[in-house]
Design brief:
Helix content: 55-70%
Order of helices and strands: EHEHEHEHEEHHHHHHHHHH
Strand order of the largest sheet: 1-6-5-3-4-2
CATH topology of the largest domain: Glutaredoxin
Number of domains: 3
CATH class of the largest domain: Alpha Beta
Strand content: 5-15%
Number of helices: 14
CATH superfamily of the largest domain: Glutaredoxin
Radius of gyration: 27 Å
CATH architecture of the largest domain: 3-Layer(aba) Sandwich
Number of strands: 6
Oligomer: single chain
Structural class: alpha/beta
Distance between the termini: 60 Å
C-alpha cells in the first residue's frame, strides 16, 4: 500500500497522553535545555530504538513530546518488514535527529500490535505528542517514504511545536549521553518528603503539621492537600471503637458528631459509597452550622479518594441536589 498524505484523520487515541499545548510547552523546555548545554552536548538517546511494551511509556509516549517518533512494526518471518527497517534506520541517520525510529517486533508486543490496530506487517506509524497516526502499510519506494517523513516532521512542528534536535548519528552511536546530575530538592520538596515520612511512620500529628507547613507556602499543592486529608482522617479514627461508633450513629441520626465519626470509619473501612451517602443525608437533614460541618467533612473525604474517582463525581451531584 502506498504512503498516504499526512493528516490528523485516523489518529489513534493512546489515552493519558499530553495534550497539544502541554507538548508545546515541553518542546520549548527541551529546546531551552539543549541551548543551555550547547550544540556539542551528547544526544540524550540513539536515533534507533527497540520498542517494547515495558518501555513504550518512556521511549515513545514521553519522547514524542520532544521529537517525532516513527514506529515500524515488523516480524522476523516477514522479510519485507526487515528490508523496510533497514531503509528507515538509514534514513534516521540521514535526518540527523529530526525523528527517532522505534522498531517493534509484533509477536513480542501483542498488546501494542492490537492497540495500534495493525492489520499486517510491515506497518509504520508516527507518534506526536502522545497521539499515533498511521503512515503506511507494506513496502513503499524510498522517495515516497521520505515524502511521508517530511510531512510528519512538518506536522510535528506546525501543530505541536515539536522539533527534534540535530544529532550526529556517529556520535550518537559512539558516545551515549551521560545522565544529568540530579537536581537538588527545593525546600518545598524537602518539606513534603518529611511530611510523607511522618505519615508512613505513623506520626500523624507530625504529618498533619508538616503538610500544613507546605500548604502555608503553597496552598495549591495537590499532593500536600491529599496527604493532609489522609493524615487528619487517620488521626480522627485512631483509637475509635468501630462497634460503639456505628451504634451511636444508628441510635442518634440527628447527632452530627456521631454521623461524622461513622462516615470516617466507613471510608477507612473501604465503604466509600456508604461514607459519602451518610454525609449527603446528614447535609439534607441539617441546617446552619451542622450542615456546614457535614458538607466540609464530605469535601475532605473527596480529597482522600481523589477528584477523578467516579464515586466522588456521583457524590458531588447528590450533594448539589440537596444544597440547591
Amino acid at each position: 500500500m502506498q504512503p498516504r498524505n499526512m493528516s490528523m484523520s485516523g489518529v489513534v487515541d493512546l489515552a493519558a497522553v499530553k495534550a497539544a499545548t502541554e507538548a508545546k510547552a515541553k518542546a520549548e523546555q527541551a529546546r531551552a535545555q539543549r541551548q543551555e548545554t550547547g550544540p556539542g552536548a551528547a544526544p540524550a538517546s540513539p536515533l534507533v530504538i527497540e520498542v517494547t511494551e515495558a518501555t513504550f511509556e518512556s521511549d515513545v509516549l514521553q519522547r514524542s513530546a520532544e521529537v517525532p517518533v516513527v514506529i515500524s512494526f515488523w516480524a522476523d518471518q516477514a522479510e519485507q518488514s526487515k528490508q523496510l527497517n533497514a531503509v528507515l534506520e538509514r534514513l534516521a541517520g540521514e535526518y540527523r535527529g529530526r525523528f527517532v525510529l522505534g522498531t517493534a517486533e509484533v509477536y513480542a508486543n501483542q498488546m501494542l500490535f492490537q492497540q495500534f490496530g495493525v492489520q499486517g506487517v510491515p506497518a509504520v506509524f508516527a507518534v506526536l505528542a502522545g497521539q499515533a497516526m498511521p503512515l503506511f502499510q507494506g513496502a513503499a519506494p524510498e522517495e515516497q517514504i521520505t515524502e511521508v517523513l517530511d510531512q510528519v516532521i512538518a506536522v510535528a512542528e506546525q501543530r505541536f511545536g515539536i522539533v527534534g534536535a540535530e544529532v550526529d548519528p556517529g556520535e550518537a552511536a559512539a558516545q551515549p549521553a551521560e545522565p544529568a546530575p540530579p537536581r537538588p530538592a527545593t525546600p518545598q520538596e524537602l518539606a513534603l518528603s518529611a511530611a510523607h515520612e511522618a505519615l508512613d511512620a505513623g506520626d500523624l500529628a507530625g504529618a498533619v503539621q508538616a503538610y500544613r507547613n507546605v500548604l502555608s507556602d503553597e496552598p495549591a499543592n495537590t499532593e500536600a492537600k491529599l496527604g493532609l486529608a489522609q493524615a487528619e482522617l487517620l488521626q480522627r479514627v485512631e483509637g475509635a471503637d468501630p462497634q460503639q461508633v456505628r451504634k451511636a450513629a444508628a441510635d442518634a441520626p440527628a447527632d452530627i458528631d456521631a454521623q461524622l465519626a461513622a462516615s470516617d470509619l466507613d471510608l477507612v473501612g473501604g465503604h466509600v459509597e456508604d461514607a459519602f451517602g451518610r454525609l449527603v443525608d446528614t447535609v439534607r437533614r441539617t441546617a446552619g452550622e451542622d450542615r456546614d460541618r457535614a458538607r466540609l467533612r464530605l469535601l475532605e473525604l473527596f480529597e482522600v479518594i481523589g477528584p477523578e474517582d467516579p464515586r466522588v463525581a456521583a457524590a458531588r451531584t447528590a450533594l448539589a441536589r440537596v444544597l440547591f
